[in-house]
Structure formats: C-alpha cells, structure tokens
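To whoever is on call:

I kicked off a structure prediction for a single chain this morning and the downstream step that reads the tokens threw a length-mismatch warning. I double-checked the sequence; it's 294 residues and nothing unusual in it as far as I can see. Pasting both halves so you can look.
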Amino acid sequence: MVNPTRLIAWFDAHARQLPWRAPGTTPWGVLVSEVMLQQTPVPRVCGVWTEWLTRWPTPSSLAAETPGTVLRAWGKLGYPRRALRLHAAATTIAARHDDVVPTEVDVLLTLPGVGAYTARAVAAFGYGYRVPVVDTNVRRVVARAVHGRADSGPPSVSRDLSDVAGLLPPLRPARFCAALMELGAVVCTARRPRCAECPVAQDCAWIRAGRPAPSGPGRPSQRFTGTDRQVRGLLLDVLRTAADPVPRARLDLVWLDALQRDRCLGSLLLDGLVEQTCDGRFALPGEHARTPGG
C-alpha cells in the first residue's frame, strides 16, 4: 500500500520547485500548466508557462488575443492544437463563467480541450478538492506499490480512478495526488526505479514480490524524424517567424517530399492552425484576411 503521511512528508521535503506549484498560483494557472504538460517534458514548459501567466493572467486576457498570436507564443511546445483549445477554453470561461475557472469536474469537462485527467487535475490542484488524479506516473506507482506489478498494463479509467480514490487520505488529498505523480516522475520511474530513495518502499507490494519483470511488451519508441509531425512543425515555424503572410513557394522549401508537404499543409488548414489569404498566401489564423468564402 501507500502510506499517505510518509508520502506527503517526502513530497513536502523533496518536491521539484515548479512555477505552477508556487503559492498563489490560480486555478487558471493550473489549467494552463496542465494543458502545456500534455505530452511535453516539464523543462520545456516552465519558461513558457511563466511568460504566458505574466502576459495573460486571466482567461479573458488570453481570449482577447487572436489565435495566431497564441500560436506564436506557444512556440516549440509541440502539438499546437492544444494552444487553440486553450484559447477556446479561455473564451468559454470568460464568456460563460465570469472569467473564473469552474470548480466542478463535470463543468470543467465541458470546456474545449479539457478531458478526464485535466478536469480532475484542475479541481484538485487548483481548488484542493478531494478527487483522484491519475496520469501515467500515478498508474505505475499504484501498479507497483499496491498490486505488485512492474507495469500498469492497459489503462482503464474506471479501475484507475477507483484505485486512487481508495488511497486518498481525508486530509490534504490533493497534496497526496501531487505526491503520487512526483514519486512516479522522479523515483518510481519506468526503466530505472530508485527504490532505495522511495519513501513508501517498506510498504511496496512489488518490492515484497521480488520486483518481478514486466509481463507485457515494452512501449515502442516514438519516431519523430520524417513524420508528418515534423513537417507540420516546419511549416508552422515559417509562419510564426514571418511578419506577413508567406507565399506557397516559401513553404515549399521546408520539405522536399511534395506529397507529404502538401498533405501536412492541408491538415494544418483543416485543423485551423493555418489560414489562406485572399491572394493565395498563408498565415496564422486570425491575423490576416481569409480567402473568399473562408
């Protein structure tokens, strides 16, 4: 099992000093951090998050910007559709919730781009509510400490939430969830867990079982070079650094494979990340006139 008192004490003493954990961080700041941290490493997010909260301290301040401005500020965080969804969420919060991030999970789930994990993370870390928060790191800690397995296996929302809900202490439950996440991120890691440094090692079912090896196949490494993700990023880089709309010929220079390049440009247009101007050039959304009928 997981001893809440021991784990929270460890977290209080050893938690990484991340900017969104600082006292006074608003629920809006928590929401921005959670969206930015989706599939993006913590070190890449810290500086951008600080810049965003300085520039846009409230949902309405972000909502007032054009989507193109938001995409420029998103920079190299990757998966730029998250920026558009965060802008849309800010617009909804400003218009329908008096510029205050909702407190209830069910209401948070109605915001653009907010899924089951993010809604619970905002309720817990933004408002201190007693709700289970489950990410990959938490699932791994629970699999080992509670169930004695090396890996967590396929996700199951109902099972995973039930597992963590059963562990929540009556006091400081949100702090406990944050500590579980931190433990999985820095100590109970996937490849080289540092069991000697673990604050709950004496209660860990996996250690008591002799640390059995994973039973399932390993996760395949994700390739980036040559993928559509890379090409889309290169196309967006051109538009982010351009003061004016750019001609098609300039975009054609970023990738030699014309079929893949055209496919990626088309997908950016469909996703609303790029717009075409009346004269056939390309720009970030909301910054220049669209093509007729667009």
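Update from on-call: the warning came from a stale cache, not from the record. Cleared it. Sanity check on the structure: The chain has two domains: 1-216, 228-283.
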